[in-house]
Amino acid sequence: MEMVQTKLHQKKRQVMIFITLILSWEAGSESIRYSVQEETESGTFVANLTKDLGLRMGELAARGARVVFKGNRQHLRLDPDTGDLLLNNKLDREELCGSTEPCVLPFQVLLENPFRLFQAALVISDINDHAPEFPAREMQLKISEITIPGKVFPLKMAQDLDAGSNSLQSYIISSNPHFHILTRNRKDGRKSPELVLDKALDREEQPELRLTLTALDGGSPPRSGTTEIQILVLDSNDNAPEFAQEFYEAQVPENSSLGSLVITVSARDLDAASFGEVSYALFQVDDVNEPFEINANTGEIRLKKNLDFEEFQSYQVDIEATDGGGLSGKCSVIIKVLDVNDNAPQLTMSSLTSPIPENLPEIIVAVFSVSDADSGHNQQVICSIDDNLPFVLRPSVENFYTLVTEGALDREERAEYNITITVTDMGTPRLKTEHNITVLVSDVNDNAPAFTQTSYTLWVRENNSPALHIGSVSATDTDAGANAQVTYSLLPPPDPLVPLASLVSINPDNGHLFVLTSLDYEALRAFEFRVGAADRGSPALSSQALVRVLVEDANDNAPFVLYPLQNASAPCTELVPRAAEPGYLVTKVVAVDGDAGQNAWLSYQLLKATEPGLFGVWAHNGEVRTARLLSERDAPKQRLVVLVKDNGEPPLLASVTLHVLLVDGFSQPYLPPPEAEAAAAAPADPLTVYLVVALASVSSLFLFSVLVFVAVRLCRRGGAGSAGRCPVPEGHFPGHLVDVSGTGTLSQSYQYEVCLTGDHRTELFLEASLSS
């Protein structure tokens, strides 16, 4: 290879090489040569590459060393553990190289990680395993008796397949007084015998002679081959045919069609009649002269077999012209074969790595060599691949190339590449060869699982069954194989005291979430936690997402009546003066609901009454008021049943029974309806304020005296007077039962006590405690 050039076209990267000279495996150094005799037994030790290449023990195996011959013919095998180079099979030099000497088989030693290529050659030395052989056991020669001594008569050559000193070296002839033999070196490198006349012949004395011609090679001991020469002595024929030229030269393109005229030779004979008639023939028909034929009458040499410049570049054809008397003359024709671009380039793949890992730049994917059997300009080739691929071609030693990734590949972007390597020669017309390879990209765990959402909100209704599936999380991983298999887990909560493991669990394979216990909205309205998704690559990559679980309230708490409390043994009785106006506030039913939202919205209605139409219940606040004026005809004892209903689905109910006693002369201040209360809330004048303050002070002192008096009376009576008291819960109600949503339940807690003595004397003690 003379030079390497890289040419970039619009759509292709091309590398142009000129295969004219052999490069060395490294700049400034020659290739390593090993020699072995042909026919050596298989397995014979040739060399130790570890030592010859200056490598460490075991480095050949670690770097995946390979021995590559042209055409992938493995004449040698490498033991990577020992570094020994062994003969793979018996080698026949004549089969591998023919007559070419020396017989050199170039090969390369390829190393990876990092890539390196060593040039080497195996020289096959010849052994003398072939003897010279003549084309026929006997040849005939006619010589006129008037031939002058010194005349030279060319004879047919013997062939020896060996080369060098083992090839044919000389000829000898049996002892005789008339002839001796000469060995002539031809232009094509072969040796031909020539018979030289030393003494004139006399037909009357000896009309026929028989001589033995022997061909000897240079082996030790030498081998030989023989043929008999029959010499017929002629009279009367004075002249032998003579060619116009002793040597002819011709050129013929290798792609010439059969029957094409190569050249015309001409000989003449000065004799008359039949002795002057000349016929032409190939002097020696063998493998070398096989492509040609000659017209016996005209001397035209034509092509009878296709030529191949790559096999033979020239031929030396001997032509014999014979007259009617049997005398002959000879000439030689040198035929040069002209090369045409009839061989497409060849690509030999030495190494292909697939799959290749992603994320690594400049990975050597393939190592290959290119060649073209043509010569000159027809032998120059261009290598190219498509420009839109992330690969480049780099020339290596001699006619070798490496296909290398241009940058780091991403399997998630593209997992497979179909690459066409095109090798085009520079001949006319241009011939090309395409070689297709498929390169797979192996996965590297470079992508963490990704959740479909950064956070999930799940709903679960309270009072659920344990191990209830409440939803799923999902994560995907764009890697492949085990690197894409996702495992889900619950991440430890920031607060180690949170019993997350007792609340939820997750299926590690599919991300299904389960709530493990029955939830109570009133105790736990929401909680959140984080889940992780990890792949099974090495190292494992993971991600996490937030899961928020909201507990939905179920209508599982019926309204609870705070006032009045129900006590069958001592029912509470409300006193209403018969003089009360419509809208008079009798009492207020106070209830709460432990649920939330609309499930805790309470409404009130009068379910039953002794006198329908006498009393009414306000639906939103539970106030029981008179609906009309009272009359003497109304029964003094009234029984009311108030229904309390929440807004759940289905709604839950509670009821309370009120006892109302209609009395005359009840001196309790008139409690106005809400409209009157609103009017009374208007600002008063300063004089009124002073009167109210003074009155409040006197009343407070009086009330305190009464309370002390009542306390003394109660202590004396003990439990005797408790039969007529309304049961009142002690202390304030728990704050968590107070609905602050303004949905109809009072925002304060009330305590009422109304007592009726056994002697039917009316005593009213009203205690109201208002707390926010």
From TrEMBL:
Residues 32-134, 135-243, 244-347, 348-451, 452-561, 576-676 form the Cadherin domain. It comes from the Eukaryota. Keywords: Calcium, Cell adhesion, Glycoprotein, Membrane, Repeat, Transmembrane, Transmembrane helix. Coiled coil: none annotated. It is a single-pass membrane protein. It holds the Pfam family Cadherin_C_2. It is found in: Membrane. InterPro entries: Cadherin-like_dom, Cadherin-like_sf, Cadherin_C, Cadherin_CS, Cadherin_N, Protocadherin/Cadherin-CA. The chain crosses the membrane at residues 689-712. PROSITE patterns: CADHERIN_1 (PS00232), CADHERIN_2 (PS50268). The keyword Cell inner membrane does not apply. This is Protocadherin beta-6-like. It comes from Odocoileus virginianus (White-tailed deer).
